[in-house]
């Protein structure tokens, strides 16, 4: 976490992280949070889509 130059990662008690960053825990293509109950907080990109959204596509299948 400390080595991330863009500060894209944060670490701490989940209550503090949710207070600081919100409580979003899933975006497409992840499953809905109520199924997996992830201990994660996601700060979405402006282009992110909600879970269940199927408008995305695999741009480069060779990367998979």
From TrEMBL:
It comes from Escherichia marmotae. Residues 45-54 have a biased composition (Polar residues). It comes from the Bacteria. Residues 42-64 are annotated as: Disordered. This is Dimethyl sulfoxide reductase subunit B.
């Amino acid at each position: 976490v400390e080595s991330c130059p863009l500060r894209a990662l944060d670490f701490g008690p989940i209550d503090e992280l949710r207070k600081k960053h919100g409580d979003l825990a899933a975006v497409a293509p992840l499953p809905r949070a109520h199924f997996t109950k992830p201990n994660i907080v996601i700060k979405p990109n402006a282009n992110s889509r909600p879970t269940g959204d199927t408008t995305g596509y695999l741009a480069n299948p060779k990367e998979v």
